[in-house]
Design goal:
Prot_kinase_dom, RBK1/2/STUNTED, 7-stranded mixed β-sheet, binds adenosine-5'-triphosphate, alpha+beta, single chain
Length: about 475
Amino acid sequence: MAVENKVTRVENHENPERDSNMGENRNEFSSDEPSPRGVLEVPVLGGDSDNSSSSSSSGSSSPGKQASNRIGIKENTGLQWKNMIDTIKKKSVRRFSVIPLLTSYEISRKNLRRKLARFQGSEEETDSDGIPVPKPSWKNFSYSELATATDNFSSENLLGKGGHAEVYKGCLSDGKVVAVKKLMKNEVGEETRNSNFLSELGIIAHINHRNAARLIGFSIDGGLHLVLQFSPHGSLSSLLFGSEHCLDWKTRFKVAVGVADGLQYLHHECHRRIIHRDIKASNILLTEDYEAQISDFGLAKWLPENWTNHVVHPIEGTFGYLAPEYFMHGIVNEKTDVFAFGVLLLELITGRRAVDSYRQSLVIWAKPLLESNNVKELVDPRLGDEYDPTELKRAMLTALMCINHLASKRPNMQQVVQLLKGEDGPLELQQKSCTGRAVILDGLDMQDYTCSSSYLKDLNRHMQLVME
Ligand SMILES: Nc1ncnc2c1ncn2[C@@H]1O[C@H](COP(=O)(O)OP(=O)(O)OP(=O)(O)O)[C@@H](O)[C@H]1O
């Protein structure tokens, strides 16, 4: 299918000042070069029987009911969150978007303020089994608290800037160092901005895993803010691409396993399935001891339990990481993240960006090298021989499986974790079965070939469009 129409570029810059503070020089793949982030508007293909509200933009009869029926929150903070969202939904439904979630409701500032305030002030509630649920631990900050913490959002405290937000380092009155994410007023209207904010807040508030960003609080005073745990080493992107210092293999592999663990949690262990939709090096932050933290849940979505595939519109994400079925047809599920994770693995292995300064796709460059097991060409030359060959082979095999152009052939994140950690049998066996399958597919399935080559053609076309 030809994808056409509007392409919007949104840039993502990390703070160059901080990069230079870290003694980092730009290398070939400069860290201040933005990953192009595209929003393609494509015609929606067909319906999805699982979701009658698919791609509808009208407030249909009972979207709120549908959505709330799907919410099966069991965790402590869940009940209160659900109550708040239910109340917001009842009063604020104006538009029902492609995914029946709390994201889908446009919310006026007045409404947002009232609901969040009421939520914060609510008494302890009980869940459906009558068990008392403690109040959530995250805090509703005032603007002045955040302004004081960040020295009036001074440029010295600017940690990074994405397409939607500026992130500042801050120090709270109790001495805790935090990151304050200030949502920017861009081209989207206030109500959309509010619902995006609630979406990100709602998702991040429910996440509890060492490999995912942790919410400390929020503020809707003088703009929309999220207060998050501070990651002292910044993003993987700045460490991998923006530093003279070569990130050692041990840390790279630790990051790979950490991100895989985090995604496994989001996809399989969270009370509701979550897809992130924007897994990329600049959205992976590093803690003090280089533990990976998946951040930026601005595009993340909850998935209904029985949802296999869905068509979304518009398509959002970052070029170079987009799975073919997603950017060509808008089909989204967990395998969208699996593909992006494969690209991230390739970045860790090769030290190359998903899309380099010559507009070359890493996937297109690396795939033949992975298939021919060409370690020498593939591995980041800066590593020399300083890597664990077994870990590297596992990472290569996993990457190859994750970037399969057929979503159904990609492993799920549980399998990815097993592959990376070597819990899935000897590597040789895995390698054999992977190569065997590739041969069968390549030999028999002409449609695959067509699909693959048109994928590459479309990918190049989209990249040209977005980078012009
Ligand atoms: N908790 C944190 N600790 C340290 N730095 C952070 C933190 N959160 C974000 N940053 C920095 O700020 C940058 C932008 O943050 P983020 O990706 O959340 O913004 P965004 O506008 O949502 O981005 P995008 O354009 O990808 O949607 C990150 O790449 C990172 O460098």
